[in-house]
Design a protein that fits this description.
Number of domains: 1
Number of helices: 6
Radius of gyration: 19 Å
């Protein structure tokens, strides 16, 4: 096990989430100007690729590598978080949009975020391999990418402004 001062893991966790908070508005702006579904799928591919690298750099014990891993984490997570609300918004009709989004968000957070520490500990100790959780994250990212590629539309309705289903067209015509 790595012997960090007890404050350093907290510092790097805060640093990683700070990067997410800083980059998410930029990625949301990018998603507004491009196709948010494609950006989301691209972000999932980046997570699948970089997850083992992030875990390896974090396990190195070198503060520079750990900081770089948090930067990569922040960017890849922001690429996914930027378009996520738009994607969720598109999945539910207006009469149950708030309920649908909050239920989907809560269930996914409970299943994946709630069990993440337990799963990471189980994989690390059962397989006796520090990088095992990173491949679990990569697997989930690839699985989600496949679901998004085949179950979600290839383009958001808001991008296709000539479509008759675009809300502003219906309101203004």
């Amino acid at each position: 096990m790595l012997n960090y001062p007890h404050t350093m893991p907290l510092f790097f966790a805060i640093l990683g989430e700070t990067f997410v908070a800083l980059f998410t508005p930029l990625m949301a702006y990018t998603a507004d100007r491009a196709d948010p579904y494609r950006q989301y799928r691209f972000g999932l591919i980046l997570v699948a690729i970089f997850s083992p690298c992030i875990f390896l750099m974090a396990a190195s014990g070198h503060y520079g590598w750990i900081g770089l891993s948090m930067l990569i984490y922040g960017i890849t997570h922001a690429i996914i978080c930027g378009p996520m609300i738009k994607i969720l918004y598109d999945q539910f009709p207006p009469f149950l949009r708030y309920t649908g989004i909050s239920f989907a968000w809560s269930v996914s957070a409970a299943i994946f975020a709630g069990t993440a520490p337990l799963m990471a500990q189980f994989l690390t100790f059962e397989l006796e391999w520090l990088l095992a959780p990173s491949f679990y994250v990569s697997f989930i990212a690839i699985f989600t990418h496949i679901i998004c590629k085949y179950c979600f539309p290839s383009q958001t309705v808001a991008i296709n402004k000539n479509s008759s289903s675009f809300l502003l067209t219906k309101l203004t015509d």
